[in-house]
Amino acid sequence: MPPSTIEPHLRKIYARDDISAEEEQVVRDLVSEVVTYEAHRVIARPWQDLNHSTLLLEGWMGRVRDMESGARQFTELTIAGDFVDLHSFTLKQLDHEIVTLTRSTVAIVPHERLKQLTIDHPHLTRIYWFMTNLDAVIHREWMVSLGRRSAVASMAHLFCEMLARLGVVGRADERGFEFPLNQSQLADCLGLTTVHVNRTLQDLRARKLVELRSQWLKIIDLPQLRQVAEFDPSYLYIHKRRR
Amino acid sequence: MPPSTIEPHLRKIYARDDISAEEEQVVRDLVSEVVTYEAHRVIARPWQDLNHSTLLLEGWMGRVRDMESGARQFTELTIAGDFVDLHSFTLKQLDHEIVTLTRSTVAIVPHERLKQLTIDHPHLTRIYWFMTNLDAVIHREWMVSLGRRSAVASMAHLFCEMLARLGVVGRADERGFEFPLNQSQLADCLGLTTVHVNRTLQDLRARKLVELRSQWLKIIDLPQLRQVAEFDPSYLYIHKRRR
DNA sequence: CGCGGTGTTGAGACCTGTCAAGACGTGTGG
DNA sequence: CCACACGTCTTGACAGGTCTCAACACCGCG
Fold this sequence. Notes:
homodimer, 243 residues, alpha+beta, 4-stranded antiparallel beta sheet, 3-stranded antiparallel beta sheet, 9 helices, 21% strand, globular, DNA-binding
């Protein structure tokens, strides 16, 4: 496991904008403490009052909506460098759970410090505002998958998305990446059943696009995978632009 | 048609936080001009550079993702008082189209003024940041519909959502509201086909929950409708809280 | 060695999609 | 005032993707 530092978060920022050395220090000083959680823990429950946001340094976490029927829908997967719940700063309470998918190390960022940031650092404020807007962009892409893509295409799309996002923080290359979700969790991302996820995975494997074994996603034919997914990475806004 | 003013927007704000008289004036001064568009126009295309955001004063607009195959997915419906693309301020370009569903009057808000807002008015900045986070909350609710709800339930849920949101800006009561989408557009919101939307609408009508005729959604049995939808309005954050 | 979690398989049902045709309705032009 | 046209809504028959339920296999771990 790489050391748990704020570097991936800075890489995520620098992929979208430039910040000064002073601003970088402000970002580092947002963190009040660093905590490690075991895998499969619920870190925050819906409608609970929150006074800090959680920046994921290492591991995988997710946002899940639970339904009365027992059905679940993941609404986002978060990886090293992502804020898991930056939106809790303005929302104060979340509409979903925050869970760990693997053992995870996080940095705690008190909302009080974010509030001070909105007073003293308009540029960083715009960058963090951008980051939550980026979450919404990813949400929209998932909506397209859930609403309009076939099971194969949406699964392929998810793999392409994670490859691109993990690439930004140095956690993936074109051979593959660690993918810690089981088939049931994958089903809850894609709006499918476990059984169908299993068959879809076999389909992707039979087509010689990817293989998922023991938490590792092996990419066999990226160009074809992208084509099946109709994947266009533009929506991840991986380019610098003054915000 | 009610007069096109910024009042619905202020109502939307006041439903979530209080602002001072001075701040209210700042909000009013964000607007550089007011424009009216005909129905069924594309107002902004994906990846086009934008230097202003669009605040909807009157009418219905939407955000749509177009796919190569010709399939479409609406990702949000916007009504009087909503910013259609506040997120374009930090994104600079959008990942989707902006279209008018009805004749619409909008206020143009130059990004330059929003940038100045982030420098001079941290509280208003947090409120507008909240507003884009609210869009993301609605996105998550749609993801749940697209991924985990049946056709009947997600349609019922959409009607409940629009009732609640329109209520905030005084455009609906418990008898119903104007609903200008045709069945094909409704299908593109719900991730269904037109044919199935037609049958689902008949289902809701047979159950004596709602009737949709000539652009008017008549609500017959709201408690039952909510139950079918498993609708819980908390996610709309319709309560004041210091942001 | 047994156990719990996870992955795999089969058969059948069901929800939603596809395709195609026809009905309705409103505005327009002759 | 009628005829027509176009968009929209409706219907039927059938196909197909995904779900359900149940059983079984695999595997790491205590």
